[in-house]
Amino acid sequence: MALKTEEMVLNMGPQHPSTHGVLRLELQLEGEIIKDVIPHIGYLHRCFEKHSEAMTYPQVIPYTDRMDYLASMYNEFGYALAMERLMGIEVPERVEYIRVIMGELQRIASHLVALGTYGADIGAFTPFLFCFRDRERILHLFEITCGARLLYNYIWIGGLSNDLHPDFIRLTKEFIKDFKPNLKELNDLLSFNAIFIERTADVGILPLETAINYGVTGPNLRASGMKWDLRKDDPYSVYNKFDYEIPVGSGEKGKIGDCWDRYFIRVREMEESLKIIEQAIEQIPDGDVKSAIPKRVKPPEGQIYTRVENPRGELGYFIISDGSLNPSRVKVRAPSFVTMQVFPELCKGFMVADVVAILGSIDIVLGEIDR
């Protein structure tokens, strides 16, 4: 490409603290103004879809953990749900409740990483420490339940690897009680900080029509003003038994769909997740979490597509069975991968310093993009 004398190409990454993983952004600049951005992905390729063809169906579950490693519980949730629908398995109600509790705890933990690192990207280090302090308590709950802090292999086809720890309910209630005032503390410290608002309001605006055209889902879509959440709009598990709201962007500090809206929608989603967890804990029934786990997972010939609302948006699994013990094909609709497509549109016309703010606001995980 022939460049004008005042234009230049600048590489950001793949080793860069604000790319949240190995991502190379090729910035085409005119001075400090961004004319275009070309994302280069593939540095963290995990071969998940090809690996799955060489594994039995239960052996695929640990590989789902390693895609979006900040939302591993939800990766397993979506895969198990797809397999259960393909095989016609009805899981015990206790299993459904525990999955929802774990899934919403995972949503909070994932959002805490997103918000804490976003503050650090902008230059606020203290909120990062506060967010990770609270996330640590959720990881402890996961650890006492299944023995792992990041990659769990907890949600199995037809059930769970084991039941809740005897202290789980008590510790979860204590966490919720302590976390509510901590959210207010986060808002006072970061969300409504004048410098933070200056860096994020009216920056990286994603119009609703553009978001829909690009297939953006999750918090990034809701921040642009669309009330779309699969837990409400295409219900699965026992989400229809709980009372909670779906927050949408308000343009409170700037235009609807800007970086601040995308940040704050996650703060509000954590509040709603707390409501779901509280209700699920009070309603959780007794039962055997392993009673529906099949001795051998061998689905009939056929195919299934199942989607769930993971912390980054619509996570879909398309599974093709040829009747054997191994899947013929496992295709993943990864929300981070889809969202990354719209990133160049968000950056055009803004400055180099805004790239960091825009990239952090869409909350991508490179393990999922390069699945």
Folded structure, characterized:
The protein has 371 residues and is α+β, with helices and mostly antiparallel strands. The protein has a single domain (7-369), classed as Cytochrome-c3 Hydrogenase, chain B. It has 14 helices and eight strands. The strands form three sheets. A three-stranded antiparallel beta sheet has the order 1-2-3. Strands 6-7-8 form a three-stranded antiparallel beta sheet. It has a two-stranded antiparallel sheet with strand order 4-5. A hairpin with a 2-residue loop joins strand 2 and strand 3 (33-40). Helix 4 (93-122) runs antiparallel to helix 5 (126-146), helix 11 (259-283) packs parallel to helix 13 and helix 12 runs antiparallel to helix 13 (352-362). The chain is globular.
Silhouette: globular
Helix content: 40-55%
Residues in β-strands, percent: 5-15%
* Structural class by secondary-structure content: alpha+beta
Strand order of the largest sheet: 1-2-3
Largest sheet: 3 strands, antiparallel
At the third CATH level, what is the topology name? Answer: Cytochrome-c3 Hydrogenase, chain B
| CATH homologous superfamily placement | Cytochrome-c3 Hydrogenase, chain B
Low-confidence stretches: none
Write the layout of secondary structure elements.
Blueprint: E1 7-12, E2 24-30, E3 33-40, H1 48-53, H2 61-65, H3 72-87, H4 93-122, H5 126-146, E4 155-156, E5 159-160, H6 168-191, H7 194-200, H8 208-214, H9 219-223, H10 230-233, H11 259-283, E6 302-310, E7 313-321, E8 329-333, H12 335-347, H13 352-362, H14 366-369
Antiparallel strand pairs: 1-2, 2-3, 4-5, 6-7, 7-8
Helix pairs in contact: 3-4, 4-5, 4-11, 4-13, 5-6, 6-11, 11-13, 12-13
